[in-house]
Amino acid sequence: MKKEHRKIIEHISTYLNENPEQRFGQAIFNLKINEFIDEKDLMNPKYQLRDIHNDSDEKILERIESQLKWFNKQKEDL
Fold first, then answer.
1. Which of 1, 4, 8, 26 could link 57 by a cystine bridge, Cβ 3.0 to 4.6 Å?
2. Distance, CA of 56 to CA of 38 (rounded, Å)
């Protein structure tokens, strides 16, 4: 297992432990592992998942860590 794999799994595990009411699919979406296709028509969105097949482990890890920082910032602002 690569170090990026281990870190991604650690983030998912921590997130699910802190949010046990969420399903696994919700967690990977909330952590930005999966994303919607960037739709330009905001009045008629299609809500299709973007294919992340070619995303590097590093890029996925960056998205997760960015999202976790945003979550923490939201908690600080409360």
1. 4
2. 19
